[in-house]
Amino acid sequence: MFRILVVEDDQALNRSVCAFLHQSGYEAVGCLGAEAAYDALYAQVFDLILSDIMMPGIDGFEFVQAVRSLNEQIPILLMTARDDLAAKQRGFRAGVDDYMVKPIDLDELLLRISALLRRAGIASNRRLEAGNLLLDAEERTAYLKGEEIALTQREFNLLFKLLSYPRKTFTRQQLMDEFWDVSSSSGPRTVDVYMTKLRAKLAECDGFEIVTVHGLGYKAVLK
């Protein structure tokens, strides 16, 4: 199931869009502002972002620019009351893929989402490639030089997370919060053990390396 982040400060509209997306077979996560959206993006992997422009604090343009500095591939659709050319130009320059003017026709929104996912190559598969490594999120399988390698579910999730946001540093606590149960007695240093295991299993990977950011956590750096 594809996961969509909805960033809209109108609570009623946010709720109705998320409900419609759920009914249409998508998983939708609603945020009422950019700050909450950043937290959601750090905590989960999304396939597409829907965002308003006029929001308190950080507006949609700034939000899109920040997302694009971390992820150049994720499709972004702006939905806004502004239909002036200047706003559209600024949006596309910031890195959006599509633009809809409110009031939003939900059936049209669904068509545009489908087109964006298809264009991004996500609708047919959810894969990440880094050199001779291939991660298939649907199969939950990793292939190195064409051969399947044994990864636990947690190892796969950690690796997919890092490679989804190359050069983005994730703290040990962020990774613990997402991939370990709240009731777990493990401490943040448990993440170090997993990263050591991943480095050993991926020693022959030529596309990236897992880099330790001292005092913080880890990031994937593409070669």
Which tags fit this structure?
single chain, 223 residues, alpha/beta, 5-stranded parallel beta sheet, 4-stranded antiparallel beta sheet, 8 helices, 40% helix, elongated
Write a concise synopsis of the structure shown.
By secondary structure, the protein is α/β, with parallel strands linked by helices. It is built from 8 helices and 12 strands. The strands form 3 sheets. A 5-stranded parallel sheet has the order 2-1-3-4-5, with helices on both faces.
* Average pLDDT reading: 89
Please state the overall shape, judged from the principal axes of the Cα atoms.
Answer: elongated
Helix run count: 8
Order of helices and strands: EHEHEHEHEHEEEEHEHHEE
Number of strands: 12
What characterizes the major β-sheet? 5 strands, parallel
Strand order of the largest sheet: 2-1-3-4-5
- As residue ranges, the low-confidence spans are none
Roughly what fraction of the amino acids lie in strands?
15-25%
Rounded to the nearest angstrom, the distance between the terminal CA atoms is 30 Å
Radius of gyration: 18 Å
Q: Structural class of the secondary elements?
A: alpha/beta
Share of helical residues: 40-55%
